[in-house]
Amino acid sequence: MAATVHILNGPNLNLLGQREPDIYGHETLDDVVRRCEALALELDLTVIAMQSNHEGALVDAIQSARGVADAIVINPAAYTHTSVAILDALNAFDGPVIEVHLSNIHKREAFRHHSFVSARADAVIAGCGVQGYELALIRLSRLLGGRDD
Hints:
- The protein has helices at residues 21-24, 29-43, 55-65, 84-91, 131-144; strands spanning 3-9, 45-51, 71-75, 97-101, 123-126.
- It is of the alpha/beta class.
- The chain has a single domain (3-144), classed as 3-Layer(aba) Sandwich (Rossmann fold).
- Strands 2-1-3-4-5 form a five-stranded parallel β-sheet, with helices on both faces.
- It is globular, with a radius of gyration of 14 Å.
Protein backbone atom coordinates (compact mmCIF):
# COMPACT_ATOMS: atom_id res chain seq x y z
CA MET A 1 0.00 0.00 0.00
CA ALA A 2 1.32 3.44 -0.94
CA ALA A 3 2.41 5.72 1.88
CA THR A 4 0.63 9.07 2.02
CA VAL A 5 2.59 12.32 2.07
CA HIS A 6 0.93 15.65 2.71
CA ILE A 7 2.63 18.55 0.94
CA LEU A 8 1.78 21.79 2.71
CA ASN A 9 2.61 25.23 1.36
CA GLY A 10 2.41 28.54 3.19
CA PRO A 11 1.68 32.13 2.30
CA ASN A 12 2.31 33.59 -1.13
CA LEU A 13 3.26 30.26 -2.69
CA ASN A 14 0.00 30.50 -4.62
CA LEU A 15 1.84 33.25 -6.54
CA LEU A 16 4.73 30.97 -7.47
CA GLY A 17 5.82 31.66 -11.04
CA GLN A 18 4.54 35.25 -10.85
CA ARG A 19 6.13 36.65 -7.67
CA GLU A 20 9.86 37.40 -7.81
CA PRO A 21 10.72 34.76 -10.43
CA ASP A 22 14.41 35.69 -10.13
CA ILE A 23 14.27 34.22 -6.59
CA TYR A 24 11.51 31.60 -6.80
CA GLY A 25 11.57 30.56 -10.46
CA HIS A 26 8.97 30.48 -13.21
CA GLU A 27 7.09 27.27 -12.36
CA THR A 28 3.71 27.60 -10.71
CA LEU A 29 2.52 25.77 -7.62
CA ASP A 30 0.32 23.65 -9.90
CA ASP A 31 3.47 22.70 -11.84
CA VAL A 32 5.14 21.69 -8.57
CA VAL A 33 2.17 19.57 -7.55
CA ARG A 34 2.09 17.85 -10.96
CA ARG A 35 5.81 17.09 -10.73
CA CYS A 36 5.34 15.68 -7.22
CA GLU A 37 2.37 13.56 -8.28
CA ALA A 38 4.34 12.10 -11.19
CA LEU A 39 7.33 11.27 -9.01
CA ALA A 40 5.09 9.91 -6.25
CA LEU A 41 3.72 7.32 -8.69
CA GLU A 42 7.27 6.11 -9.38
CA LEU A 43 8.03 5.98 -5.64
CA ASP A 44 4.77 4.27 -4.66
CA LEU A 45 3.64 7.30 -2.67
CA THR A 46 0.35 9.17 -2.62
CA VAL A 47 0.60 12.94 -2.29
CA ILE A 48 -2.06 15.31 -1.05
CA ALA A 49 -1.15 18.97 -1.56
CA MET A 50 -2.60 22.13 -0.11
CA GLN A 51 -1.65 25.78 0.16
CA SER A 52 -2.91 28.48 2.47
CA ASN A 53 -2.03 32.05 3.23
CA HIS A 54 -3.44 31.57 6.73
CA GLU A 55 -1.42 30.21 9.64
CA GLY A 56 -4.43 28.59 11.32
CA ALA A 57 -5.36 26.72 8.15
CA LEU A 58 -1.85 25.26 8.01
CA VAL A 59 -2.08 24.25 11.68
CA ASP A 60 -5.44 22.61 10.92
CA ALA A 61 -3.93 20.75 7.95
CA ILE A 62 -1.05 19.47 10.09
CA GLN A 63 -3.44 18.34 12.80
CA SER A 64 -5.66 16.66 10.20
CA ALA A 65 -2.65 14.74 8.90
CA ARG A 66 -2.31 12.94 12.25
CA GLY A 67 -3.26 9.31 11.81
CA VAL A 68 -3.86 9.84 8.07
CA ALA A 69 -0.55 10.85 6.53
CA ASP A 70 2.68 8.93 6.87
CA ALA A 71 4.84 12.03 6.35
CA ILE A 72 4.70 15.76 5.74
CA VAL A 73 6.63 17.96 3.33
CA ILE A 74 6.17 21.58 4.37
CA ASN A 75 7.22 24.87 2.87
CA PRO A 76 5.93 27.21 5.56
CA ALA A 77 7.22 30.23 3.61
CA ALA A 78 7.22 33.35 5.82
CA TYR A 79 5.74 31.37 8.72
CA THR A 80 9.07 29.53 8.89
CA HIS A 81 10.51 32.46 10.78
CA THR A 82 7.53 33.36 12.97
CA SER A 83 5.24 30.46 13.76
CA VAL A 84 5.53 28.61 17.01
CA ALA A 85 1.97 27.39 16.32
CA ILE A 86 3.12 25.49 13.22
CA LEU A 87 6.07 24.06 15.16
CA ASP A 88 3.75 22.91 17.95
CA ALA A 89 1.39 21.26 15.45
CA LEU A 90 4.32 19.49 13.76
CA ASN A 91 5.54 18.29 17.16
CA ALA A 92 2.20 16.51 17.57
CA PHE A 93 2.67 14.66 14.24
CA ASP A 94 4.31 11.24 14.53
CA GLY A 95 5.79 10.74 11.06
CA PRO A 96 8.80 12.27 9.35
CA VAL A 97 8.70 15.94 8.36
CA ILE A 98 10.83 17.56 5.68
CA GLU A 99 11.07 21.34 5.47
CA VAL A 100 11.52 22.75 1.96
CA HIS A 101 12.50 26.23 0.81
CA LEU A 102 12.84 27.21 -2.83
CA SER A 103 15.59 29.73 -2.13
CA ASN A 104 18.60 29.37 0.13
CA ILE A 105 17.20 31.20 3.15
CA HIS A 106 20.71 31.47 4.60
CA LYS A 107 21.86 33.68 1.71
CA ARG A 108 18.97 36.09 2.20
CA GLU A 109 17.99 38.69 4.79
CA ALA A 110 19.13 37.93 8.34
CA PHE A 111 15.55 37.50 9.63
CA ARG A 112 15.15 34.54 7.27
CA HIS A 113 18.09 32.64 8.77
CA HIS A 114 16.12 31.29 11.73
CA SER A 115 13.48 28.59 11.27
CA PHE A 116 11.15 27.47 14.03
CA VAL A 117 10.14 24.51 11.84
CA SER A 118 13.70 23.19 11.61
CA ALA A 119 13.53 22.21 15.27
CA ARG A 120 11.04 19.49 14.27
CA ALA A 121 12.13 18.71 10.72
CA ASP A 122 13.93 15.45 10.00
CA ALA A 123 15.59 17.18 7.04
CA VAL A 124 15.74 20.67 5.56
CA ILE A 125 16.13 21.28 1.83
CA ALA A 126 16.85 24.86 0.78
CA GLY A 127 18.09 26.51 -2.37
CA CYS A 128 17.17 23.74 -4.82
CA GLY A 129 14.17 25.52 -6.34
CA VAL A 130 11.14 23.38 -7.08
CA GLN A 131 13.39 20.32 -7.28
CA GLY A 132 13.54 20.54 -3.48
CA TYR A 133 10.05 19.05 -3.29
CA GLU A 134 11.14 16.10 -5.41
CA LEU A 135 14.24 15.59 -3.28
CA ALA A 136 12.00 15.57 -0.21
CA LEU A 137 9.81 12.85 -1.72
CA ILE A 138 12.84 10.74 -2.62
CA ARG A 139 14.15 11.04 0.93
CA LEU A 140 10.75 10.21 2.42
CA SER A 141 10.45 7.18 0.16
CA ARG A 142 13.66 5.86 1.69
CA LEU A 143 12.67 6.73 5.25
CA LEU A 144 9.20 5.25 4.93
CA GLY A 145 10.65 2.16 3.28
CA GLY A 146 12.85 1.55 6.28
CA ARG A 147 16.06 2.77 4.64
CA ASP A 148 18.05 5.57 6.22
CA ASP A 149 20.92 5.71 3.72
